[in-house]
Write a structure and sequence with these properties.
The protein is α/β, with parallel strands linked by helices. Helices cover 35% and strands 22% of the residues.
Length: 569
Amino acid sequence: MSGYSFFQRASRAFNDYPHLPKVLVLFTVSGGGLAAVYADAGQNDVKKKKVVVLGTGWAGTSFLKNLKDPSYSVQVVSPRNYFAFTPLLPSVTCGTVEARSIVEPIRNIVKKKKFDADFKEAECYKIDTVNKKVHCKTTQQSHLGGGTEEFTVDYDYLVIAMGARANTFNTPGVVENAHFLKEVEDAQRIRRNVIDCFERASIPSISEEERRRILHFVVVGGGPAGVEFAAELHDFVKEDLAKLYPALKQYARITLLEAGDHILNMFDKRITAFAEEKFARDGIQLKTGSMVVKVSDREISTKERSTGQTVTIPFGMCVWSTGIGTRPVIMDFMKQIGQINRRVLATDEWLRVEGCSDIYALGDCATINQRKVMEDIGIIFSKADKDNSGTLRAEDFKEVIHDICERYPQVDLYLKKRQLNNFNALLKSSEEDAEINIEKFKSLLAEVDSQMKNLPATAQVAAQQGSYLADCFNRMEICEANPEGPLRFRGTGRHRFHPFRYRHLGQFAPLGGEQTAAQLPGDWVSIGHSTQWLWYSVYASKLVSWRTRVLVVSDWIRRFTFGRDSSRI
């Protein structure tokens, strides 16, 4: 190849890729000559997009771990500098697992990224969508000097993954007198409080009545977290504390309060029935139909649905586990963008906040506002009616059937409920080979939107959303040029990405005594000791790093060998 031809090709390469750092390249050519290609070494013509991630929970960490495109500059902001494996928080409350075993420093994750990424331990208190800035303040202890520092972070894309706070339903006294179980610090406080109760009850001057009150543990909420904590606490008391405080074991009681008719309502009825029977055998008092109306420092008041009477229950410790509420900064942001009278942020099916093209929200702080088929029914019909005849046969829908089912997932759920194989079967279910006009089309799909359901606020959903959004960011440029999503029924062309679809992988409910209930896809239910080992395996595999896997498994081995630690640390 001649020197001139090589020079031409090298110059063309630099022109085709202007974002590459340019250097002086020397090379020999035929005949012994020397040629050179020079370009600026200090300039980078492509400006990296700034991505700000608020939160280091399941959604934010999953997004960060799966983001790979080096064209982004990522700034993570969170008041906690670690990721916590929250499904094991009930185990932390009783010393089955140590707190540090379930956390991974977020900087360990940040340092492994092969692009510009940084972390700031601070709390976001305001989102400015006009100037595309996030206002933050530091959360370090005031004794470090200087007071609270405030700063702003610019963004091109904002990912809100701030999670949620405990929902008190504005019940008087809950914040002041009850423990929550949302953070690692909550679990540590509960653990210390349990030991405090036993130590105080062992004081000889304490009366019998007071000793019974101190050792009465009340759990409010019959969901998975409340049930698992009650089971863990029962095992801790019976297997470990009863040996250390033999004179007190007769006074220890656990009561689980649930406002509904049953605990674990989101599980199969077989699991609910087994859990209630097991708790009865274990001596855990289960009170359903009991709505808490007030919590004081020594008593909890409930209104019994069966009698309408208000009952007062003395307690030594109360743990509140009744669902999630919206954080103040999210509430202010919702008012700012016009999402008033909502419980959480509304996003579209691509996790974009409604009304904001460059802000995404995922995890417990947001919910997907799925479009209804009946809102777009006329447009869907017109997309299939290419000859504008006003009537369609089932065959005319061939080109849009896949797009309809992908854009509106409730269609698939409705077909399964009706036990129909596909969309064509629905169209032919009324009159075979008949032409369908718009009114007939509306009547066929009138009940489809009844299948719409909000996704549960679980770690599984948040992790999948984070992974999905990271994949979208990784392929942003590719999909801008070649959109892969469904048809835009209210516009032209296609959406850039496939919409988010949650894939349910099953759920567990540890019930104590080395027994766990599992509900897996396909309506498969398993309960017992063998399921407990499945729980161990799944949770160990889902931990965020090998470091945490080793620590948690060693904690389990330690507990089997030596029992739970009762030190007040």
